[in-house]
Design goal:
- By secondary structure, this protein is an alpha+beta fold.
- It folds into 2 domains: about 260 residues, Glutamine Phosphoribosylpyrophosphate, subunit 1, domain 1 (4-Layer Sandwich), CATH 3.60.20; about 150 residues, Rossmann fold.
- It is built from 18 helices and 24 strands.
- An 8-stranded mixed beta sheet has the order 1-4-3-5-2-11-10-12.
- Strand 6 and strand 7 form a beta hairpin.
- Helix 9 packs across helix 10.
- The longest helix has 15 residues.
- It starts with 7 loop residues before the first strand and ends with a helix.
- About 50% of the residues are buried.
């Protein structure tokens, strides 16, 4: 008979965090929202501390909640809370997470609301032991599976897609945990980069299309401890070596006997998310063998060739627009300057004064450098336009600072379709490019001219058009819609 003894230890969150949820996007934060970030380490004496550092490096992928689960070989220890990594984990808190194995997660809600109950990793006791899981992505058949599982008696504690994996693993009739996970994977559809933690093993899985990124590394300083992360920038901080990407459809099992790779799922056409290169990933990361920074510079150069303009200065919208602006400026031989300064001390919420200040939200985050802009023909380079609200305020801010002309250039195509593979996007009705021409958008943002990079130019920058998902630009979804999935129908504005 399996040991039914409780082996999961859940640590109390800091006072005041249990019911706290953070505000969602404001009109002054008009970007697609980062999905989530996962990190895991096996075989390190300071596993919790290494995971804390790894999550800190992945903070750009999610700022609503953070969590770490560790194993000492007998028990799992879990701590999750709302807030940034540095707020959630103090040194005394990390000291309460023992063991040489850990997984961690930073989250921005794409499925499930912003609440402590949806923070990850999810950790449970079940008939065959303890299990924790964290997930980057979205399942396209999650609602169908949830309804089926609930009809069979499953009780869900959260609103996230991730909990579906837990119930599928627990319900599997396979014996070995990796076989139970493989069995669960045959039931799900969608995008997922997953980390599972048991008392004595860690398992990483990437979906067959490789939509969301996942990377494998080694820590030579800890006798080749294995590390897994959404992006290799997390390896740099802890001194780990980036070995390779986890392949689409691959399952990596790491336990006391070492690491082994299995393929529980049939191969599928690769469709990695191209928006990782446009905006999401940190520019110092390397995904799919390509430097994100170099790709963004190429996007800027292609944009300059497609939409040249006579101007005196090129400025980026920091920070994500910087590499593309450098490429744009180099291609046309126009001086590059930092005409907008970004505040690095702005949280996700703020108190606006009762007396109205023009463009308050944008000015809180960005400040114009008037000497760079005054009397100049200015090209403003950004990575994308979603609703257009922020672009409009930035253009007006630059003009108010004395620019004689303001030309807006976007280093990606018009975003006309929502994503349902792990990125929080508005409905199609809210995407300005879905219902307005480029000329109409230019008039709305009050730019003297507006130019978007074409899909062909974007794909040329990454060098392969047949292995990327670009549905948010083209509407060509890698995974077909399931008619009964209400969330998908809502996302596309049906």
């Amino acid at each position: 008979m399996p040991d039914r003894k409780r082996r999961l230890v859940v640590l109390d969150p800091p006072p005041g965090t249990a019911a706290r949820s953070l505000a969602h996007r404001t009109d002054d934060d008009d970007h697609f929202r980062d999905e989530c970030g996962v990190f895991g380490v096996f075989g390190h004496p300071e596993a919790a501390n290494m995971t804390y550092l790894g999550l800190h490096a992945l903070q750009h992928r999610g700022q609503e909640s953070a969590g770490i689960v560790t194993s000492d070989g007998d028990h799992l220890y879990a701590h999750r809370a709302m807030g940034l990594v540095t707020d959630v984990f103090t040194e005394p808190q990390l000291a309460k997470l023992p063991g040489r194995v850990a997984i961690g997660h930073v989250r921005y809600s794409t499925a499930g609301g912003s609440h402590i109950k949806n923070a990850q990793p999810i950790a449970v006791d079940y008939a065959r032991g303890s299990l924790a899981v964290c997930h980057n992505g979205n399942l396209t058949n999650a609602e169908e599976l949830r309804a089926e599982l609930e009809a069979r008696g499953s009780i869900f504690q959260s609103d996230t897609d991730t909990e579906v994996f837990v119930h599928l693993v627990a319900a599997s009739k396979e014996i070995a945990v990796e076989d139970r996970i493989a069995d669960a994977l045959t039931r799900v559809k969608g995008a997922y980069s997953l980390l599972f933690l048991m008392e004595d093993a860690m398992i990483a899985v990437r979906d067959p299309m490789g939509i969301r990124p996942l990377c494998l590394g080694l820590l030579p300083s800890a006798k080749d401890a294995h590390v897994i992360a959404s992006e290799p920038c997390a390896f740099d901080l802890i001194g780990a070596e980036h070995v390779r990407d986890v392949e689409p459809g691959e399952m990596i099992v790491i336990d006391a006997s070492g690491m082994r790779s299995v393929r529980p799922l049939p191969r599928a056409p690769q469709r990695s998310c191209i928006f990782e290169y446009v905006y999401f990933a940190r520019p110092d990361s390397k995904l799919g063998g390509m430097s994100v920074y170099d790709v963004r510079k190429k996007l800027g150069r292609s944009l300059a060739l497609q939409h040249p303009v006579e101007a005196d200065v090129v400025i980026p919208v920091p920070d994500s627009g910087v590499p593309a602006a450098i490429g744009f400026a180099h291609e046309l031989g126009i001086p590059f300057e930092m005409g907008l300064m970004r505040s690095h001390y702005v949280g996700r919420t703020f108190i606006e004064p009762q007396q109205s200040i023009r463009h308050f939200g944008v000015r809180l985050k960005l400040s114009p450098v008037a000497p760079v802009l005054r009397g100049k023909r200015v090209v403003v380079v950004d990575d994308s336009i979603v609703r257009g609200t922020t672009s409009r305020k930035i253009v007006k801010m630059v003009r108010d600072a004395g620019a004689s002309e303001v030309h807006l250039r976007i280093s990606s195509p018009p975003t006309q379709w929502p994503c349902y593979y792990g990125i929080d996007t508005p409905t199609r009705r809210e995407l300005i490019a879905a219902s307005h021409s480029i000329d109409e958008i230019a008039r709305y943002v009050t730019a003297d001219s507006l130019g978007y990079l074409s899909i062909e130019g974007m794909l040329a920058a990454v060098g392969a058009e047949d292995r990327f998902c670009h549905a948010c630009f083209s509407g060509q979804y890698a995974i077909p819609f399931t008619p009964t999935n209400r969330r998908q129908m809502r996302l596309v504005g049906v």
